[in-house]
Write a structure and sequence with these properties.
- The protein is mainly alpha-helical.
- It folds into 3 domains: 122 residues; 62 residues, no CATH class; 84 residues, no CATH class.
- The chain is 61% helix and 1% strand.
- It has a two-stranded antiparallel ribbon with strand order 1-2.
- Strand 1 and strand 2 form a beta hairpin.
- 22% of the residues are buried.
- This is Integral membrane protein.
- Keywords: Membrane, Transmembrane, Transmembrane helix.
- It comes from Mycolicibacterium arenosum.
Length: 294
């Protein structure tokens, strides 16, 4: 029976990406479950059965699962590059699935790579969870059919070879990228990330107040206390439910599901929300004139 992939957003060209995303998510949750099991049974004196998960080591060296992730990413990446010219959808789908597995193993220990020390269960280890969420968000948008720099029509570049059409596309791309830079300078990483796919978000993010600790606030708000105060108050009120949800989700992923109490949320808000320090006297406190003045 012939299977058609023309179901909603699942087309043949998106099948490898969809399988990559599914493999990524499943591998991440399975890996977290296994690691939690190993940690929970680490002090047990009961003999391990052959099927029970355990740490892998050689010569007294603990081999982290990021090692297997790097190997899988490299092998599957080379495979996809090899198939780039003459490969079919089935071959790409298999390679993309293994790439998703490897990427999940790598990003699950992203904090270890970032800090160059084992902080898997420490506060800094939450960086890995944030990296996984960002990867899932980007892959999910791609699967749904969103394209980066969607403010302009890429089809225009392919269908119309006139100078006017090419110039319009290039200017649209540059404008979108400049908006993304402004949004990132204002400390709105998620708005900038998703806004690369849904451009109106970039317009909103660029027009709104900067986060108080971001470079934009450091350049423009340190000499304007009322605006800095507005940014601090707004940040704390808007971030509170976000921080509550984030902490709950991180606890759940880490295997300790419970709703964070007010003191935990306040501590996280205190860590995240602070006024930016003023730039040094020899550094101008303004941004280029071409940037937004909002």
């Amino acid at each position: 029976m012939h299977l058609s992939f023309q179901l909603d957003f699942i087309t043949r060209d998106r099948l490898p990406l969809l399988c990559c995303l599914v493999a990524f998510i499943l591998t991440f949750f399975v890996t977290r479950t296994i690691v939690r099991y190993i940690r929970a049974t680490a002090d047990s004196d009961a003999p391990r059965k052959w099927w029970q998960p355990r740490n892998i080591g050689h010569g007294g060296v603990h081999i982290h699962h990021v090692v297997f992730g790097v190997i899988l990413v490299m092998v599957s990446g080379v495979t996809m590059v090899t198939l780039a010219v003459s490969g079919g959808v089935p071959e790409f789908t298999v390679a993309a699935t293994f790439f998703g597995i490897g990427a999940a193993l790598v990003l699950d220990e992203f904090a270890l790579i970032l800090h160059l020390q084992d902080v898997y269960w420490a506060e800094d280890g939450r960086t890995s969870v944030d990296a996984v969420f960002a990867a899932v968000a980007v892959a999910g948008l791609l699967v749904l059919g969103f394209n980066p720099l969607s403010f302009f029509d890429v089809g225009m570049w392919q269908d119309d070879h006139s100078l006017l059409a090419r110039t319009t596309v290039i200017l649209g791309a540059v404008f979108t990228l400049l908006l993304a830079v402004v949004v990132l300078l204002k400390g709105k990483v998620w708005t900038g990330l998703v806004g690369m796919f849904i451009t109106p978000l970039l317009l909103v993010g660029a027009a709104r107040l900067s986060r108080p600790h971001a470079p934009w606030a450091r350049w423009r708000y340190t000499t304007r206390p009322r605006k800095m105060h507005r940014a601090l108050v707004r940040e704390r009120s808007l971030r509170r439910p976000v921080v509550q949800a984030k902490l709950w989700l991180q606890h759940a992923v880490a295997g300790e599901p419970h709703f964070p109490n007010d003191s935990e949320v306040d501590q996280q808000l205190d860590r995240e929300i602070h006024a930016a320090a003023a730039p040094p006297p020899d550094q101008p406190a303004t941004v280029p004139a071409s940037a937004s003045t909002v």
